[in-house]
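User: I'm writing a tutorial on reading structure tokens. Could you give me a worked example: one chain, its sequence, then its tokens, then a sentence or two explaining what the tokens reveal?
Assistant: Sure. Here is the example chain.
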Amino acid sequence: MIVLAVDVEKQLGAFKLGVRFEAAGGATALFGPSGSGKTSLVNMIAGLLKPDRGSIALDDTVLFDAARGINVPPHQRRIGYVFQDGRLFPHLSVRQNLDYGRRMSGRPQDAKDLERIVALLDIGHLLGRRPRMLSGGERQRVAVGRALLMGPRLLLLDEPLASLDAAHKREILPYLVRLRDDAGIPIVYVSHMPAEVRRIATTVVRLDAGHVAAAGGLELLTDADADLLA
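And here are its predicted structure tokens:
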């Protein structure tokens, strides 16, 4: 069953992005070198960047259709977005940061939902802390939790491990695998690191110079990909 269907074009200065792909459940990796258009693409899916042409559909909802004049605002798309740096509010506690996602999506308080997500990400012992008291991996887990409490139909993870050192990457990777397997929400995972993609992705969409070079399973990752650099 197709969950996400993307067919968009966007001119960004001298760079032209033209991408068409479909994703089912599980985790779909947008994989390719820096400058291939990965972040611009997820920004279009999220509604933060408007395509010049094309369409984006999530489940049975059309989020964008240039020909029909449809462009659903970001806050109405029910898409959770986790950025590279987490973007937690420094003046709020972890509990308050988590609740921000729920409040901004207009969802009622649900103690069981909060408990489930806190347990999934193992952040119960962090609820009273401020972001400055967290490690990089802990901040990203809280950012994922905040996105999940929005009740999203789709989760976008834009290079969530890019700012972490090797130790913190090893810390958070098992939680991302658990998220893929247990949360029941399709994921679009942006990365240029083949080791991450092999651990997390169920489907790979290879981007090169703004276009889809190939789409399929993990067999698309080759030994040469070990040399891909940011």
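What the tokens reveal: The first strand starts at residue 4 and ends at 12. The chain has a mean pLDDT of 89.
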